[in-house]
Design a protein that fits this description.
Blueprint (H helix, E strand, L loop, with lengths): L4 E6 L3 H11 L4 E6 L2 H8 L6 E5 L1 E2 L2 E2 H10 L6 E5 L4 H10 L3 E4 L4 H18 L4 E4 L2 E4 L4 E4 L2 E3 L3 H11 L6 E2 H8 L10 H14 L5 E4 L3 E4 L5
Parallel strand pairs: 1-2, 1-3, 3-6, 6-7
Antiparallel strand pairs: 4-5, 8-9, 9-10, 10-11, 12-14, 13-14
Helix pairs in contact: 1-5, 3-4, 6-8
Length: 228
C-alpha cells in the first residue's frame, strides 16, 4: 500500500464517520473527514487523495453531483459510494458517472475496509502504467486524455474501457463474450450483441485505427501488437 496516502470520508452522520475513521486509519494512510459537499470540494480539489468514501445523501446536496465534478475534471481518484437501502437507482447512476464501487448501509466495517484496500491496491498497480504511446497514438488513461497525431479525441466511457482492454492486451484476441462481460458490468440481463460491433466501429473511426484494431473473424478483436 502506498505510504502516506490520504482517504477522504464524506459522511454527515458523526457517529458513523467516527467509526469509519477508526476502522480505516493505519500507519500507511491518513484520514480526512467532511460532513458536507462544500468541505469535500475544498479538500479533494486542493489535495490528491488516494480514495474518496462518499455518502450519496448529504445536507447540502447530492454526492452524485460531486462524482460528476470529479470525473469532469478528469480526476481518477477511486470513489466508493455509501448508499441507503432505498437508493438503488442512485447507485446505478453513480457507477455510470464513474464511481468505482458502493456499499449499502448498514454495512460491516470489515467488508468496507476490504473494499477500500482492494481499490487502493488497484490504484497502486496501475500507477505509472496509465500512459501509453504507440506511433501517432498517445493515451493517458489516468487523466482520460486520448491523442491522435497531436489532436485530442473525445471518447465515451464505454469506448475508453474498450480501448484500455485492447491496449493492455496487445497481440491477444479478446473474445466477443469476454469483451461484452467486461464492458457492460451493470448487471443488465441482456446486452444487444450489436452493441459491441458498434462500439468497435466508433472507436476505430474516432482513432483512425483500422490498421490497429483487428477483427478476428469468428472469435473477437485484437489491437495488433507493433502493427504487425
Amino acid at each position: 500500500m502506498q505510504k502516506n496516502s490520504q482517504i477522504v470520508i464524506v459522511e454527515d452522520d458523526k457517529d458513523l464517520c467516527a467509526g469509519l475513521c477508526k476502522a480505516l486509519k493505519d500507519e500507511s494512510r491518513s484520514i480526512v473527514s467532511c460532513e458536507n459537499l462544500k468541505g469535500a470540494r475544498e479538500q479533494i480539489f486542493l489535495t490528491s487523495p488516494a480514495l474518496i468514501l462518499l455518502d450519496i445523501n448529504l445536507p447540502d446536496g447530492n454526492g452524485l453531483d460531486l462524482v460528476k465534478e470529479i470525473r469532469d475534471k478528469r480526476l481518477s481518484y477511486p470513489i466508493i459510494l455509501l448508499s441507503a437501502n432505498d437508493t438503488d437507482a442512485d447507485v446505478v447512476k453513480g457507477l455510470e458517472l464513474g464511481a468505482d464501487d458502493y456499499v449499502t448501509k448498514p454495512f460491516s466495517l470489515s467488508v468496507l475496509r476490504a473494499r477500500v484496500n482492494t481499490q487502493l491496491r488497484k490504484r497502486e498497480l496501475l500507477s505509472g502504467e496509465n500512459e501509453v504511446t504507440i506511433g501517432d497514438f498517445s493515451f493517458d488513461f489516468e487523466r482520460m486524455i486520448f491523442m491522435v497525431n497531436g489532436e485530442e479525441i473525445s471518447l465515451s466511457k464505454t469506448e475508453q474501457r474498450l480501448l484500455k482492454l485492447l491496449i493492455y492486451n496487445q497481440g491477444v484476441t479478446l473474445s466477443r463474450d469476454d469483451l461484452i462481460d467486461r464492458l457492460w458490468t451493470d448487471g443488465a440481463e441482456f446486452v444487444d450483441e450489436n452493441a459491441l460491433s458498434v462500439a468497435i466501429k466508433r472507436l476505430r473511426d474516432k482513432l483512425h485505427a483500422k490498421d490497429y484494431i483487428k477483427t478476428v473473424y469468428g472469435l473477437g478483436y485484437m489491437w495488433v501488437k507493433n502493427n504487425e
